[in-house]
Fold this sequence. Notes:
It is a single chain. This protein is an alpha+beta fold. It has two helices and four strands; from the N terminus they run E-E-H-E-H-E. It has a two-stranded parallel sheet. The chain has a two-stranded antiparallel ribbon with strand order 2-4. About 15% of the residues are buried.
Amino acid sequence: xxxxxxxxxxxxxxxxxxxxxxxxxxxxxxxxxxxxxxxxxxxxxxxxxxxxxxxxxxxxxxxxxxxxxxxxxxxxxxxxxxxxxxxxxx
Length: 90
């Protein structure tokens, strides 16, 4: 939980969007003391963003990536949430 008593969802990897949705719902219900939730999704994973839309989770801000060397080539279809906005791999 964050210092403002928000729960964090991520990292979240799943082979199937329905599994990811069930996991998000479970994580939310398992922390009733949280005043809200924060998560970071990748805008190219449409299904991940649809899950949040379905659960009425508002988009706070959109961030753009800037790379110093080369763009990371990642299959984002199975990444439904990651831990931080800097897309740290670990």
